[in-house]
Amino acid sequence: MKVPIARLKSSVLLRDSVIYGISNALYAGFPLFMLPLFTILLSPEDYGLIEFYRILSMVLIPILGLSTVQSIIRFFYDLEETDFKVFVSNIIFLHFFNAIFGMIFLFSMSYFISEKYWSIIFYCIIFFLSNQIIEILLSIYRAKKESKNYFLIRLACIGSDIILLYTFYSLVDHFDWTFRVLPNVFATSLVGLVAIFILFKNKYLLKFDKKLLVTAIAYSSPLIVHMISGYILNIGDRFVILYYLSEEDLGNYAVSYQLGMLGNFLFTSFNLAWVPVFYEMLKKNELSRIRRIKIISYYLISIFSVLMLIFIYLLVKFSPFFESYAIEMGLVTIISLAYMFISFYKFEANYFFYSKNTKRLSIITLGGACITICINLLLVQNIGLYGSAIATVCAALFMFLMVKVKSPKYEKNVFQD
């Protein structure tokens, strides 16, 4: 019976990986698919403001949400169904309360912030709340391996975004940063309302429980540092570029960076399906299977990264979409290498999440963030955008090596506890 069961698990993992891959290609890849249109319609300065909106939206997740969404999948395996629903309810309440607090603080600071940036921050808070409600629902679907429902919600996000983008494109004569930001905010808010309805219908909005909320925060609070450090790794170089160089350089780098991230697509899709299966394998001490899957994953990620670099080279060289942007393949290659290491790092980091040692993982990520900032400050003013790319690959390699050294220890501790 072991062989058929193993094959069944593998087929479920493969099926979910494919579904998540399609979802990720449509959702995370949507900005990349629309990149040629944005580069034609928008100036590098406007694209830089869109990048600022994206950056700030990401930073608000750990600041206002306290990274508590990260705890949902892990505690799905520890709590009874009723307690789990209360656990999720408390996370939802926390996000609403903190979003309201964020709005109050923003209005109190309106005198000190320029109108343009005030508007962007306002939209970021709305996006934060709607996006995190959606992510809460999607985390539940991932934990329960309901990949089809996950796909439908992602499809709703993309579909509403496309419809609103087309509407704006048809009605607006002058295109600036609002052409991307407003459709994104409205689409996310619409799907967020649908997510609230689904959660309420499934009795996830039950009651407040201080003990469960404290449990969620205790697990997730170290991840505030982890997530902010991750954002610094991803976007901290933008601020250094803006300080030493220009908004046009920032726009060029942002486009190059997104192209370099394409290689990360394979593991991101796989990891969405892998985490619940990985937790179950650890519970059953199936270490040999985990190691085999890890080796195969590393090979596939490496091959996929090379193939994507070839595709990007052909796209940049022969398509007219990037004529207004200065895209250097050397820059894209370095960023692609960095994200290959980041994919390896994320695989090993799953051991830390399972063992609930989020504090140690946060320290490692913080170390990577410090490395990227220091190298950026040293190199950007001397060698320009290549300094930021080099900083990213150095930080990624450091984090991978650190979790690679520690992960066997946590693998053993799982079965000693």
UniProtKB/TrEMBL annotation:
Coiled-coil region: none
Entry keyword set: Cell membrane, Membrane, Transmembrane, Transmembrane helix
Compartments in which it is found: Cell membrane
Membrane topology label: Multi-pass membrane protein
Keyword Ribonucleoprotein: no
Transmembrane regions: 21-43, 55-77, 89-114, 120-138, 150-169, 181-200, 212-233, 253-275, 296-316, 322-341, 361-379, 385-403
GO cellular component terms, semicolon-separated: plasma membrane
PANTHER family in alphabetical order: O-ANTIGEN TRANSPORTER-RELATED, PST FAMILY PREDICTED COLANIC ACID TRANSPORTER
The protein's name in its UniProt record: Membrane protein involved in the export of O-antigen and teichoic acid
Organism field: Cyclobacterium xiamenense
